[in-house]
Amino acid sequence: MLKAVIFDFNGVIVNDEPLHLELFRRVLGEEGISITEEEYMARYLGYDNFKCFRAALTDAGREQHAADLAYVVALIARKTDYYLEAINERFLLFPGVVELVQTLAVSYPMGIVSGAQREEIEHVLERAGIRDCFQIIITSADLNSGKPDPEGFLKALATLNSLGNFDPPILSEECLVIEDSRAGVQAAKSAGMRCLAVTNSYPAEKLAQADWIVPSLIDREVEVLFTSALA
Q1: Which pTM does this prediction carry?
Q2: If you average pLDDT over residues 176-193, what whole number do you get?
Q3: Number of C-beta neighbours around residue 71 at 10 A
């Protein structure tokens, strides 16, 4: 039986992967590094900001900069500033997400596990009017290892159990993760959780490890899933 729902953020709640590509390339371009969209999709999609910038710097032969924590943090801060500015002009929530989140929040404790910056997540959720639907938000700043490591989902479950009055505690197999990336699906399954993958960023064959795969969160199959298979 389903007892908790954990969402990814980028590519699931907010359709901002193209924006992240744009801003990632913008910041790198300011540092004299150029990458193509094809390179981003093949190499960096699904990484958190820290891992993205370190990998791109290393690939460009800037190992010294990649190893400089302050330098990488400054790049991330610059990208975050650009993101907050851009997201105010382009409201990018996926269709049906607000309604789905509000519906699920009535019945389940919910969290977010994402490689995005906390301020980006908070800003978007507040603007969408759904911040109160989520009891917890876990970001890369809270973790030692990002996806595909299961640490984020396991920490989310432990935090939900510590905040709620669940007797017995919620188990991993009683959690549903909603993801869009290969690394996210792998992390969810490694955490012992069930996973619903949405093909917003990857084709279905790349997400085959998931328990269910849908083209969007307003697909009829999602409604059937929550009213029958997970009841």
Answers
A1: 0.86
A2: 96
A3: 16
